[in-house]
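User: I'm curious whether this sequence folds into something compact or stays loose and floppy. Could you predict its structure so I can see for myself?
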Amino acid sequence: MSEDFLVNFTPQETRVALMQGGVVQELHIERTASRGLVGNVYLGRVVRVLPGMQSAFIDIGLERTAFLHVADIWEQRQNGHGGNGSNGGDRANGDGPKPIEKILSEGQNLIVQVLKDPIGTKGARLSTQISIAGRLLVYLPQEKHIGISQRIESEAERVQLREKLQQLVPDNEPGGFIVRTMAEKASDEELANDIAYLRKMWAEAKNAAVTARPPALLYQDLTLGQRLLRDLVTPETARIHIDSRENFQKLSAFAQEYMPQLVGLLDHYTGERPLFDLHGVEDEIEKALARRVDLKSGGYLIIDQTEAMTTIDVNTGGFVGLRNFDDTIFKTNLEAAQTIARQLRLRNLGGIIILDFIDMESEEHKAAVLGELNKALGRDHTRMSVNGFTALGLVEMTRKRTRESLAHVLCEPCPTCGGRGEVRTARTMCYEVLRELLREARQFDAREYRVLASPAVTDLFLDEESQALAMLSDFIGKPISLQAESGYTQEQFDIVLM
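Assistant: Here's the prediction. I'll summarize afterward.
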């Protein structure tokens, strides 16, 4: 199926929508104030070494210190022994990897690369194994190795690409390469250009490290628009519509220099109507932030995203269109499987995901639903694994988490409920106010107690709970007055001593 990309530029953010069959499949958003960090190379400083966790915290200039595990420390092996460079560890007498406290020390400077962006309360994940990605190749400056992408399945093609690259990379030049899927049909000239570009990027980063003081950014990955051309465009891509003349010219120049075969795909959109409005992307973003997703059949999904995992519950809703209930359930689950796959991409949900399909008695129906799910997920380029139905009728799966979900990018926890998704009732708050009044009366001898609360709470005190308030006033022997504050949330109140 052919696909189009829509690119919306503003000074504050860049948004990219992947369209297939006129329907939004993926959304990528990059804000100028908070660009993603994956791929960035920093000169950092070791802040703390944790032998018990075999990890270290590294200051790279972010709000939170970044995290480096011993498994992500590059080891340079030479003649069967570890070489101990500025970025490496070594091996102790060939008996296994040295512990992190023997490799790093507090205050040490270190060149590191971000593997994962900070997510939630977790800092960025780092590695000392540097890799610089190009259009066709990934450059590994610390290794002498040529690898081939696993997505290139033809063994003959893999051998041919390896031989071609070995001819282009002299033995006396440092560094190794991984051949990306995009290089499958690349010419020698295109590969040579990519090699020169990558070596230049790394040379500039190394030179910057000589004079920089940590923490310092040495190399920054491409912008979202440039990464779209480098990483997201596939042979199925028909057009790339860009709504900004300035950025159309910038991307055209970038494509002309590094990937001229893509220049013809770029299109400057000049219509009066906003590009995302024209294709219904704004509506899809709004729907992708909702908890409920309606199915065409009348069923619906409930998607709950938590710190530990994401759960997706399938319900029949008002769908009663088939002859028997088993067929109704089966049809709803089949449609849900396709919608779930699209929602995972659209919302960029990652980590552990639990799918609660409607219970099915037939093993044949279960196999068909699982097959439909796997087929729909096959269009997703993100690495994932799907297990079959458990004894409880749930499907467990994982999807690699590489960046923040759409909800985490565009939203923040509700200041009223603190992210719980619910608030205490007005009656619950009335009873809490009564308890607090009693505590205050026992500690302070005030002339009068005034309750400042939301209108919903004060209205309940004036109506159904008026007797309870009067009884407490009699009990403490002091008058109690009410003052409605429209700016207070339902869970907020104050007691003022008069």
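Summary: Confidence is low (pLDDT under 50) at residues 76-93. Residues 190 and 259 are 8 Å apart (CA to CA).
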